[in-house]
Amino acid sequence: MSHFYANIRGHRGEATRAGAKSSGMYSNTAGWKGAISVRVWYNNEKDEDCYAIALTPWHGSDGYSRVIAAGPLDASAPDAIDGGALWDENQRLREALAEAEVAIAALKKEGV
User: Fold this and answer.
1) Which tens digit of pLDDT belongs to each residue from 60-95?
2) What does the H/E/C string look like for the chain?
3) Distances (CA, A) of 107 to 35, 98, 100
4) 12-31 pLDDT tens trace
5) CA angle, corner 46, sides to 42 and 51, nearest 5?
6) Residue 26: per-residue pLDDT
């Protein structure tokens, strides 16, 4: 019996796949400019199923990977990661880095 189960549907119909505790499951669904990657696995230490969802570049598209959500694969679990908060923090850090790079360039220009 499978521990994980997945189905996908496209213009050629539906396909299903099964995964074991030892293998977990991984999938990508992509467009021209990016993909959503979904991974599920069994965490032996916590004795629970887990998931992670990430937005990733796809075959030469610009951008960077970022986790949208992650946590226990349990619809009743309150402690999943808030992907919106992760996105906001990521953006804040990128803006701070850009400001620091501008300041460093100005200092270099002044010969400091």
Assistant:
1) 778 888 888 888 888 776 666 666 666 677 777 888
2) CCCEEEEEEECCEEEEEEECCCCCEEEEEECCCCEEEEEEEEECCCCEEEEEEEEECCCCCCCCCEEEEEEECCCCCCCCCCHHHHHHHHHHHHHHHHHHHHHHHHHHHCCC
3) 39, 14, 11
4) 999 999 999 999 999 999 99
5) 40
6) 93
